[in-house]
From TrEMBL:
The keyword Methyltransferase applies. One of its GO terms (biological process) is methylation. Belongs to the UPF0677 family. Keywords: Methyltransferase, S-adenosyl-L-methionine, Transferase. Transmembrane segments: none annotated. The lineage of its organism: Bacteria, Bacillati, Actinomycetota, Actinomycetes, Kitasatosporales. Residues 250-271 are annotated as: Disordered. Signal peptide: none annotated. NCBIfam families: mthyl_TIGR00027. Exhibits S-adenosyl-L-methionine-dependent methyltransferase activity. GO terms for molecular function: methyltransferase activity. Its EC number is 2.1.1.-. This is S-adenosyl-L-methionine-dependent methyltransferase.
Length: 271
């Protein structure tokens, strides 16, 4: 899974080099290079369908990164001073974003990606712009206890980010994750999720290369994500990739293949 996180870093590095980049991630190139994905990655299938799928996935990573950047900044502006990144991977928000004084950011992931990440950060002499704490724990284990031991305060509002994570978890694991987040979320907490849109596994995962990210996808969004999250105590709003892309000046030119359902970019507030 950490190799997938390095692949995401490569996408962010490429976006950062654009003149009209939606964000700048100075560390992304270093992560990609250390993981062997910069400047060139391994040979890829050259058929047109595979190329289109890669471009679509890369585009979605760019849009979701911008969406969650905005969500975190809005939460900070509202006074939230705790941030938890679940399945943090190569996320560098602690280093690339401006944080209000007193912000504490927790990166939760397994030891392998966190150790790899720390080696790159040391090499780059990167300095976080907030108080940053890593929590090495598998999300299938008792991560709330590990997070509490690291100093997270459940009595204070938190912004939770699960970016590109839930699609890899079976339905029962997703439900458990949401229940655990809710148990540590004070009123006013925020949450940003990315969910696999309905049909995405059929379109991208059916003929995916074994071991690739898409081959590991198992979970799609519920038919009514707003209602689903309301049942977990969250007031949610959904956006489609197409809606966000247009708002960010990157409109999708191709028409939707079918009637678009609720979007997989989720922002929510704890009631």
């Amino acid at each position: 899974m950490w190799a997938t996180a390095v692949g995401v870093a490569r996408v962010r590095a490429l976006e950062s080099e654009r003149e009209n980049a939606l964000f700048r991630d100075p560390l992304a190139r270093a992560f990609a290079a250390a993981g062997g994905l910069w400047p060139d990655s391994a040979p890829l299938p050259d058929d047109e369908a595979a190329r289109r799928r890669r471009l679509a996935v890369s585009f979605s990573i760019v849009i979701r990164t911008k969406f969650l950047d905005d969500l975190v900044q809005e939460a900070s502006a509202a006074g939230v001073r705790q941030v938890v990144l679940l399945g943090a991977g190569m996320d560098s928000r602690a280093f690339r974003m401006d944080w209000p004084e007193g912000t504490r950011l927790f990166e939760v992931d397994t030891a392998v990606p966190l150790d790899f990440k720390e080696s790159v950060l040391r090499e780059e002499r990167a300095v976080p712009r907030c108080e940053r704490t890593t929590v090495a724990v598998d999300l299938r284990e008792d991560w709330p206890a590990a997070l509490a031991a690291a100093g997270h305060d459940p009595a204070a509002p938190t912004v939770w980010i699960a970016e590109g994570l839930l699609i890899y978890l079976p339905e029962d694991a997703v439900e458990l994750l949401l229940a655990r987040i809710g148990a540590r979320s004070a009123a006013g907490s925020r949450m940003g999720l990315t969910l696999g849109s309905r049909g995405v596994i059929e379109r991208f995962g059916a003929d995916a290369t074994p071991g690739s990210a898409a081959s590991l996808w198992v979970s799609e969004m519920p038919d009514d994500p707003v209602g689903w999250l309301a049942g977990h105590g969250w007031q949610a709003d959904t956006r489609t990739l197409r809606e966000c892309a247009a708002a960010y000046g990157r409109p999708i030119s191709t028409p939707p293949q079918r009637e678009e359902r609720p979007g997989g970019l989720i922002s929510a507030i704890r009631r």
